[in-house]
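User: Could you check the structure of this?
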Amino acid sequence: MKVISKEQIKDSDNIVFINHLKQNKMGNSKVLINFASSKYTDEALGTKTNNILDKVDGNPVFKDAQSIIEELRTANTNYINALAKVEGGSKEDTVIKNNCRKIVETLLKKLAGVIQTVSDGDEAIILSNGMDVNKKPSTVGKLAKPENLTVKPGDNKGSVTMMCDVVEYADYYEFEHTEPPVTPTSIWTKDTTKKRKYEKTGLGSGKEYAFRVAGVGTDPLRVYSDIITSYIL
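Assistant: Sure, the predicted C-alpha cells are below.
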C-alpha cells in the first residue's frame, strides 16, 4: 500500500490522497491515544504534537477538524512556553506547565478520534498523519530458563531466601522445593510470588532441601532453573 505524502497531496490538487482513502478505506488498526507522561516525556510530547500538526496541516480530509487543529496548535505553543519556565522556576510554573500539558493531551485525543474515523482503521493513513498505532500484544510463548538461582539462609531459623535473575515477560515466579534425592516422581511444594526474590519459612532446621524456580507467563509450560540443594539452619 502506497503512503501518500503531504507534498504529493498538494501537487495533485488533493485528488490522489482522497482516492487513496476511497480505495483503501478498510482495516482494523486503532489509533494509540496514550499521551501520558509514562509514554512521552514533557519535551517529547511537545515534539510529537508539532509533528502531528505538520502532517495534518492543509490536509483536505481534516477540513471539519480545523478548529481542533488550531486549538491544539495554540495549546502546544503555550505548553512549550510553560515548559521552558519550569527549570529554575517556581512551583507555580510547574503547576501551570502540568495544566497546559493536560490540555494538549485532551486535544490530541480528540484529534486521534478524528483520524480514527477518517482512516477507518487503515494503518498507513494513521501513521502518515503522525499518530501511532495501538499494536495488539503478541503471544510470547515459552519463557526462558531462570538463571543464577541462589539460596541463602533467611532471617529466621528454618528459612531461606531464594533469588534469580529477571525472566523477561514473566508475570510471576514459582519457587519450588522438595527433599533430595530428586527423582522424576519427586513431589515439589510450590510458592508463587510476583517478585524474583522470595523467603521461604517453616522448613526443617538441619534438613537438606532441593530448590528450583520457573518464570510464569501466558504459556502453560514451565522451564525450570538448575536445581540448588542446601541445608537449612
